[in-house]
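Provenance

Sequences were taken from public entries as deposited. Structures were produced by running a predictor on each sequence independently, with no templates supplied. The record for ABC transporter permease from Clostridium hominis is shown for reference.
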Amino acid sequence: MVKKLEAFIKRFYLVLIFIFLYTPIITLMVFSFNDSKSMGKWNGFTLRWYSELFQNARIMNALKYTLIIAVVASIIATIIGTLAAIGIHRMKGLPKKTLLNINYLPVLNPDIVTGISLMSLFIFLKPLLNIEFGFLTMLLAHITFNIPYVILSVLPKLKQMPANITDAALDLGATPGYAMRKIILPQIKPGIFAGLLMAFTMSIDDFVISFFTTGPGVTNLSIEIYSMARKGINPSINALSTLMFVTVLILLLIVNRKEFTSRGGKIEEI
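Predicted structure for ABC transporter permease:
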């Protein structure tokens, strides 16, 4: 009886968490089909906000910069972060602890501190390297704040690797490059993929750092939505958010289906 009650409480608590998480998203999706600009009143079903979305040059321009910067920044940050994680993993003692603590600082730092510091750095470098605020500065800023998250995603997978597996491969005649490609990277691939997704999500979601490092003519969705907030959010943003959520959901289902199929239909227990 007690076990059944505990199981019921756990399930109820889990359902409650998902209700709080997904109710705002479902509300946003429902009102993306509302024929009124107000989310406080339902005027009937319509698709006009989806039509206006693709005709809104400002939103499309912001979406373009958002996706380009997110894709490029996440790929570069994943490459740098993976190599950095492998290097940190091979270190020992005080140098390793020092680098780990340095890596924690950008993660724990408030975004406004990181944004202002990067802005100050670009202002300092502007006369030296002739850097203008815009696409390049925002891209460099996104790469910079994404790297620590990639390192933190890859390090646990490196710790799970069998001890001395790399040394064994080198003793058997493998070159360092071959050992990296055939031994290390396949072992830590889930961590690399998780770091890539984390970097991509952080880049799309970022507002504060982007706001301080962008320039004229270059904006992303976060900045564009913030500028709309003073006059009222355009319902086309609800339509865009719905499309982004559905796209991510479909990609997640495809990835999970592939993993499920590769395990021969067996569900992996957590």
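Residues 58-255 form a domain with the MetI-like fold fold (CATH 1.10.3720.10).
The chain is about 80% helix and 0% strand.
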